[in-house]
Design brief:
The complex is a heterodimer.
Chain A (H helix, E strand, L loop, with lengths): L2 H12 L2 E6 L5 H8 L13 E2 L8 E5 L4 H13 L5 E5 L1 H5 L21 E3 L6 H20 L10
Parallel strand pairs in A: 1-2, 1-3, 3-4, 4-5
Helix pairs in contact in A: 1-5
Chain B lengths: L2 H9 L4 H22 L9 H10 L8 H24 L12 H22 L3 H31 L5 H6 L4 H17 L24 H26 L6 H25 L5 H11 L1 H17 L1
Classes of the chains: A alpha/beta, B mainly alpha.
Chain lengths: 156, 304
Amino acid sequence: MNLWNRLMCYSRRHSPWLFHMNTGSCNGCDIELIASLTPRYDAEQLGVRLEGSPRHADILCITGPVTRTAAQAVQTVYGQVCGPKAVVAIGSCPATTNVFIDSRVLVGPLNRHIPVDVFVPGCPPRPDAILQGVAKAAEILAERGNNPPAAEEKQP
Amino acid sequence: MNLTTALARLLIFPGLLFAVPAAWFFLWVERKAVAMMQQRIGPPFMQPFFDFIKLLGKTTPLRNGIDGLLMRAWPLIAVAAAAGAVGLLPVLPSSGGFAGDLILLLALLELPSICIIAAGFSSRSLFGEIGSAREAVLTVSYNIVFLLAIVSIAASQHTFRLEALAQLPATPMRHLALLAILICIPAKLHINPFSLPNAEQEIYSGPLTEYAGPELAMWELSHGLEWVATVGLVATLAVPHITLWWLGAAIFVALSFAIVLLLSVLAAATARLAIDTTVRFYWQCTLVFAVVLISSALFMRLRS
């Protein structure tokens, strides 16, 4: 691995920019994600920045059990994030659809629609758990940047 | 100024080689000051550098035709203009310069804003267009005071040459003009309370919504260089002329740092204003400055 690649790897690990997407969550996990940016947990120490546009983001943070109306939007937003990218599923809902299992308005769990890298279980998970998940996703992102997967990106 | 000194000033000092690390440093100070105001630890020292490198390594969406070409060109033009503006600053004494370089500096400082307006419209994003429209309105509002303040300094002291202006003793009118410029800088740099064009979370990221990867890295860099250029301009005009060049340089750096800190604290302490409030603020409240400054400049010219 040459110097430029090592620098790039290091930079990717230290500057994960997040895009937050709600796919029908009860707002519990969303509050906890915001709480991880507050002075008490201070995610900015890890270089985290919550971005307004998916085009700027590296890590897609998804909450909620993926309702039928949100399924298409999840795929669109996933396509809009530029590679290399990682996905963090926050809460039990995107992992298993949680208590809403067998509901007829759901098409979850999330990994039926897009590949998920890190699951952060909990209902809702604590902010420290979310930060740990984001840090792990940043490491995955750095590795993925150096060995890009064969089936890369479809742009919407 | 011959070609060699011009190139040296543009590329080495105070141009790109000095200005790019300075831009990252200013961006870090801005974020760190906000973090400390909120009792956080904040980003590590190298954060803007890591962000820049990371953005260079990202892919960009495929864009064809003239739109794609323009979207790649705007950030580069903005960076070039901002770097040129920094290169014109007379940081070192007897560094040359030419008659009328103040006018060129003002034009180069204006270019990044124009590039952002054009970039938002050429991205064809709804949020980009809203952001560009806001940026255009904002530019028209603050520029009246900003330009008139600088022009009145130059007109009252009979020169449009930056180095001569930096060496002339400061008059009370110049202090008033610097105050007016300081009021305009938050709007020029899109920081709170005038962060309307890039109003994050409100209109996504404004004109830069569709920009990704290296293009976004260039926008970040041009924003940092704008910081260096505008703060440097104020510091140049405010620093008293001292024959010891290292003392002058130290005062210059300290003053720039103080201005960045002041603006960051202002950004952390305020919330975003609505567009109509902002426009009303600049047209009604600060126009007094412009009128006072330009009339006193005319008065001083008539008297001398």
